[in-house]
Amino acid sequence: MFGSGRDHGIFEIKKNEWKDNLLSLSDLLDNRKERILNTIRNSEELRRGAIERLEKARAHLQKVEIEADQFRVNGYSEILEQLENYKNETIYFEQQRAINQVRQRVFQQALQGALGTLNSSLNNELHLRTIRANIGLFGVMKEITD
């Protein structure tokens, strides 16, 4: 059927070569399969690690956002407090300035009124005596200061 014994021997050799090639290919595929499975396992471990780091980062971000919100609230409170202090200081300053202006006007009006009264009640001679007395006082003051 197959021909001669020699053909049968060649067929056996070819059969053995094919068998060996198939076994080598099978070994190669098994090794390749193991490497792929190891790569998948490593990828899964890396993915789990990345997820853990991501969750930690999210938790840290949430904590920082809460702290930032608290800082904003506290910072705004401090700013508002400073503004309130500046406002109160400005109001006090303006009140003191207004009080001083009123005092000056009242004093000026009182002096003008007193001068008016003095001028109207003094006659010329009394006026001259007052001027002489003032000149004398200025002379004494000048001597004291010299």
From the structure above, extract its key features.
about 150 residues, mainly alpha, 2 helices, rod-shaped, coiled coil, ATP synthase subunit b, chloroplastic
Calculate Rg over CA atoms. Answer: 56 Å
Query: Percentage of helical residues?
Result: over 70%
- Relative strand content: under 5%
- The beta-strand count equals 0
Largest sheet: none
- For the record, the count of structural domains works out to 1
Average the pLDDT over all residues and give the rounded result. Answer: 84
Number of helices: 2
Structural class category: mainly alpha
The span between the termini is 158 Å
**N to C succession of SSEs:** HH
Q: Which word captures the global form?
A: rod-shaped
Unreliable stretches = none
Brief overview:
The chain has helices spanning 5-121, 124-145.
Q: Can you describe what's shown?
A:
The mean pLDDT is 84. 0% of the residues are buried. Helix content is 95%, strand content 0%. The protein contains two helices and no strands. The longest helix has 117 residues, at 5-121. Belongs to the ATPase B chain family.
